[in-house]
Amino acid sequence: MNIRDLKYLLAIKETGSFSRAAKQCYVSQPTLSGQVKKLEESLGVRIFERSSKQIIITAVGEQIIASAMKVIAEVERIDALADAAIDPLSGRFRLGAFPTLATYLFPGIVMPINTCMPDLKLILVEEKTQSLIDKLKSGQIDAALLALPVVDEQFKIKVLFDDYFRLAVKTDHKLANKSEIGQTSLLSKDLLLLEEGHCLRDQALEICSLMGANEEQDFRATSLETLRLMVKAGTGITLMPEIAMGLNKDRDEDGIRYIPFKEPRPKRTIGLVWRKTLIKTAVIDELIKILTHK
Amino acid sequence: MNIRDLKYLLAIKETGSFSRAAKQCYVSQPTLSGQVKKLEESLGVRIFERSSKQIIITAVGEQIIASAMKVIAEVERIDALADAAIDPLSGRFRLGAFPTLATYLFPGIVMPINTCMPDLKLILVEEKTQSLIDKLKSGQIDAALLALPVVDEQFKIKVLFDDYFRLAVKTDHKLANKSEIGQTSLLSKDLLLLEEGHCLRDQALEICSLMGANEEQDFRATSLETLRLMVKAGTGITLMPEIAMGLNKDRDEDGIRYIPFKEPRPKRTIGLVWRKTLIKTAVIDELIKILTHK
DNA sequence: GGTGACAATAGGTTTTATCTATACGAAGGA
DNA sequence: TCCTTCGTATAGATAAAACCTATTGTCACC
């Protein structure tokens, strides 16, 4: 048996045809046909039912192909291990973050990452939390910045920092002159929220315990910047994480006042999450250094 | 990369030498050396530090070899899948059972198994429960008859039958004329038990709640038959599962009376346990049929 | 300095994978 | 029914690779 042969099997399953599989593997159709036939003979079972019409995979075939996929994946892992050993801080690295964090965090970390790991081809992915978790699991991204808690057997997690919430109100809002705010003050109808799927929306709802009261609102913003503009326009108030406030946390900006909460200050805890089986853990270590030194 | 090359790696790790590995793989030493060298070159990393004294595996080497083992295991699985597809009821099958069950159950199932699966090379393994579980996990046996509950993610389990306990006493024992017995009657010092590690010992202790009282006993039998002989000799009484009583459950035998317990009658539940990843599940199905029709 | 153990190298042979060209078989259209 | 098309199988030649034996190189030990 040969690794190449197993790749042929996967290609046939994928393309549904010997000729197309051959093309995909950059070999001639007779070569691929011959190798598959030899494999079938050596195993003593038929993997494909051939006809000029279509290729049907036998029951054993499906099982064999499932195992073949695992073999190929592990072989690729060997390649990746070798690559990482040559230079653990080089190659492609895909880092994800959810939108209400990514917008404000990513700009500040590109430079330091580039300085610290010049050979790393960094790919930044901005998606909602669930999508990031899915992509982490399927290996489409290598690590993600997520709001904790994230509970999953196959992940490793490093707590990075707390991001406290403030209440963003227009400077002439009735709450604007308060120096601190209690959570009960949020029981108002003019609280603006993001659309479904944003973790910040869920956190805000949890903080405000407004589940029922808010269902009737028919406006759902798609970004925090939209919310900010609406606060500025006097449409309502919103929760704003400090990371989204810009540099001057204690001064008003753009006619908006960011009022801190009374203790216990509501917050979101940001952590770095990656698969236990990830190979380039050296990159993770560097990322943690950069993200905790902020 | 080639599956054969990965086997070379494992052989070198195993034998600690290129020449011995070559011998183990039935190739010449230069062949193996050459292939390993080529593999190292294609991966761009050194897997072994060579010297005339000893072979040292590099850090990447260890990782690569760990992956190589997974690849080989999965490749062997492909072979096994094919074999099972040709004839699912043929080949070697290793069935385990713990001693106090095996002695009485095994003799009765060899014939039916042989009749029903004539091409199956059945290997019967009699070991204590913990050893059977270890061997199941490591693939040294294919299935085991165990006293439930057995809780493990990687196992599948089929409940087979209940095996009720009776109290075995000498016919002239003071309890011998009772037709039924309560569990409190067991608070006696002459209860004989098996040595540590037998699940029957633990079950007996649990039933009697005699943990403390029994620690001082310095006699621990190694088999149920020894216990039976001692009961017959008048040394004491013991718990005996019905399966060990022979065919005549309601008559005395050998000067021993087997007294049933009052409800709820204490029992052990016997189940068939196998790895979820086992390939020859057709054999499992047949075994279940045979073992539940008893 | 000689010896033994072990890995690396050299050169030739065998095996295997691959190619192009062609045959075969089924389905669809004239 | 015949012809074309699409797809797989077969044949024969070529290129690549894995393998062998013989030999060299290297290090430790006596």
The third-level CATH topology of the largest domain in chain A is: D-Maltodextrin-Binding Protein, domain 2
Order of helices and strands of chain A: HHHEEHEHEHEEHHHEEEH
Total strands of chain A:
9
- Biggest interface, chains and residue tallies: A-B, 24 and 24 residues
* Class inferred from helices and paired strands of chain A: alpha+beta
Structurally, the number of domains of chain A stands at 3
Output the CATH homologous superfamily of the largest domain in chain A. Periplasmic binding protein-like II
Computed Rg of chain A? 26 Å
Helix proportion of chain A: 40-55%
Residues in β-strands, percent of chain A: 15-25%
- Tell me the major beta sheet of chain A: 7 strands, mixed
Oligomeric composition of the shown chains:
homodimer
CATH architecture of the largest domain in chain A: 3-Layer(aba) Sandwich
Q: What count of helical segments of chain A does DSSP give?
A: 10
Terminal residue distance of chain A: 53 Å
> Could you list the spans of chain A in which at least 5 consecutive residues all have pLDDT below 50?
none
What is the name of the CATH class of the largest domain in chain A?
A: Alpha Beta
